[in-house]
Design brief:
The protein contains 10 helices and no strands. With about 300 residues, it is an all-alpha fold. InterPro entries: PAP2/HPO (IPR000326), PAP2/HPO_sf (IPR036938).
């Protein structure tokens, strides 16, 4: 019996170490995949003629004339100012302090700074060859989308685990409105917003990885993500990704084989489908990444916060 118990204890320990290792390394994997995705978006939609043509067609097709829709989009763009970022960082710091998680407070501030500075630096230094003849300057990636996504990501990270699902859904809806509004206003192409989302996710996942390395070896709570957010996000992501794939195929066919096969409005809604899919995927991953964070600063099995 002693030998059997010893072998069982050894097996349990091995599984715990393996789970703890995956718990700590998974954010790094998400960061690498997100950065790679942003690079591929740039290569396809900025560095190729076909990619630029499709991207620009989606932007120019957003001729929204409905008065109420226009007002909502305009107000949404106006809500992504630096003051909002500062207020959210302050809220995150207060929530982190109340939860005795000062590492999350610092991480939240770093997320906002790193994501927005990275996007601004990329926009300032990346070259955009004029392959589609639009003559427009580089707008890759979208600063407004990065600001909105970093705000939502910070709130999901800083708030208690019980609220992260709801925050994920609210944040995803807000970021979708901001991203679509920038395309509608012809400030950005759809690829600009998708790349911004991936850059924010890469920064957030990298910071989460560092936080978990710092807490390596401590007790780890259940990492089950909030299904109230992950299930709807997965469903919306799957449907919108399918719509985007079909629409993109039609756009490519129109650009290469059958000119005027689709309208500008069709191109715009194809871009919107791609944006919705990107928001759903990035928020789904972020909710899952943050789900396994320790519950409190003590991590001693106390009440969840």
């Amino acid at each position: 019996m002693t030998a059997v118990a010893s072998r069982q204890a050894h097996a349990d320990t091995t599984r715990t170490v393996s789970a703890g290792g995956w718990h700590s390394i998974s954010p790094l994997l998400v960061a690498v995949l997100s950065a790679t995705g942003a690079y591929l978006v740039h290569r396809v939609f900025i560095r190729t003629t076909l990619g630029q043509s499709v991207d620009t067609a989606a932007m120019r097709g957003g001729d929204v004339r409905h008065e109420q829709v226009t007002e909502v989009l305009s107000r949404t763009l106006g809500a992504t100012q630096l003051a909002v970022l500062a207020v959210v960082c302050l809220v995150a710091a207060v929530v982190g302090a109340l939860r005795r998680r000062f590492d999350l407070s610092i991480g939240a501030a770093l997320l906002v700074v790193a994501a927005n500075v990275a996007c601004q630096q990329f926009k300032a230094h990346l070259d955009r060859p004029d392959l589609d003849g639009s003559g427009m300057p580089n707008s890759f990636p979208s600063g407004h989308t990065a600001a909105a996504a970093s705000v939502a990501f910070v709130l999901i990270l800083a708030f208690p685990r019980a609220l992260r699902g709801a925050m994920g859904l609210i944040g995803a809806a807000y970021v979708t409105l901001v991203a679509v509004a920038t395309v509608w206003a012809e400030w950005h192409r759809p690829s600009d917003t998708v790349a911004a989302l991936l850059i924010v996710l890469a920064c957030g996942a990298l910071i989460t990885w560092v936080i978990r390395l710092r807490r390596w070896g401590g007790p780890r709570p259940s990492s089950t993500p909030a299904r109230v957010a992950t299930l709807p996000l997965a469903l919306v992501g799957a449907v919108s990704a399918a719509a985007f794939t079909i629409g993109l195929a039609a756009l490519v066919l129109s650009e290469r084989v059958l000119p005027d096969l689709v309208t500008g409005r069709f191109a715009f809604f194809t871009g919107v489908a791609g944006i919705v899919a990107a928001v759903a995927v990035t928020f789904h991953l972020w909710v899952r990444v943050t789900a396994g964070d320790p519950l409190s600063g003590s991590d001693n099995g106390g009440n969840a916060r």
